């Protein structure tokens, strides 16, 4: 678990191996006039389901969470597709695609940290205080109702 957490902390767009992804470029949309029509600056980074399921560079606990939870860039068929046309440079858009993937993995995967003894003690005190306060309130409410009753 510690290795997986460390891997997750060090994960960035630069640490993802790019050679295993299929990278393609196409015309970007939006403003820009002739520049947009002439250059292929929109980057699309994709990976087939079979390759994604057997990704050697992702630790097993991380991959298990990604498979059970699913994440934003995974299609219904299980392929992974990330696109970016934010900048006018195809290389910057490619970098942005890998950054998006790293950010999404970090946002999806969660490893609970160990709670300290003092944190556990603090929450136990809070629970006890809430319990006693609730019981006092119930007794007060019961006395109020009992005082309303009159005996004939």
The structural class is mainly alpha
CATH-assigned fold name of the largest domain:
Double Stranded RNA Binding Domain
- Biggest sheet descriptor: 3 strands, antiparallel
SSE run: HEHEHHEHH
Give the total of beta strands: 3
Structure in words:
By secondary structure, this protein is mainly α. It contains six helices and three strands, in the order αβαβααβαα. It folds into two domains: 107 residues, Double Stranded RNA Binding Domain, CATH 3.30.160; 37 residues. The protein starts with a helix and ends with a helix. The protein has a three-stranded antiparallel β-sheet.
Considering the chains and any ligands shown, give keywords for the structure.
elongated; Double Stranded RNA Binding Domain; mainly alpha; Prokaryotic-type class I peptide chain release factors domain-containing protein; 3 strands; 2 domains; 152 residues; 6 helices; three-stranded antiparallel sheet
Question: What is the topology?
Answer:
Layout: H1 2-10, E1 22-26, H2 34-38, E2 42-47, H3 49-53, H4 60-69, E3 80-84, H5 90-108, H6 117-148
Antiparallel strand pairs: 1-2, 2-3
Structure summary:
With 152 residues, this protein is mainly α. It has six helices and three strands.
